[in-house]
Design a protein that fits this description.
single chain, about 160 residues, alpha+beta
Length: about 160
């Protein structure tokens, strides 16, 4: 019986070492995870209702950009800008989609290409015409809605 108790005690003490594992440091794990994340890309691109049914990510992304460009072109009144600013054929619009689905538009101009008064007028046209833009679902990164920004060229002069 003593032999059995001694053997049991020896096995019990040796087996405890198998359960004694080192717990990794919380900060180290966080740093490793943050290094793994590609902050330049999102898991799911922003989307609009018309593109939600598309499964292929590249086609869905292209659908989203096409929808934005077409909607902006329709809303800003291409004729207004075409006649008032015949020298402008394309404007670049910086679009920000926030996590709360709000959307902001900002016109991007090449340096010294347009006078300040004209920039202000173009910006006011853009702001007024795009104020009630349709809802855009924000991008998703690791299950969390995130802010995204991109520049979209909007063609004003359409050659026929």
């Amino acid at each position: 019986m003593k032999l059995f108790s001694g053997l049991f005690l020896l096995i019990f003490m040796v087996s405890c070492q198998y359960f004694d594992k080192e717990v990794p440091d919380e900060k180290e794990l966080l740093e490793q995870e943050l290094k793994k994340i590609n902050w330049e890309e999102v898991d799911e691109f922003p989307s609009v209702l018309q593109c939600d049914t598309i499964k292929d990510t590249e086609i869905k992304r292209q659908c989203f950009f096409d929808y934005l460009a077409q909607t902006i072109q329709e809303r800003i009144g291409i004729d207004t800008l075409r006649f008032e600013y015949p020298e402008i054929d394309t404007i670049n619009v910086k679009i920000t989609v926030n996590p709360d689905s709000s959307i902001q538009f900002e016109t991007q101009y090449p340096n010294d290409s347009i006078a300040l008064a004209d920039k202000t007028k173009i910006d006011s046209i853009l702001t007024s015409r795009l104020s009630d833009f349709p809802k855009v679902e924000p991008a998703i990164k690791r299950g969390v809605k995130v802010k995204t920004q991109f520049v979209l060229p909007v063609i004003i002069k359409i050659e026929k």
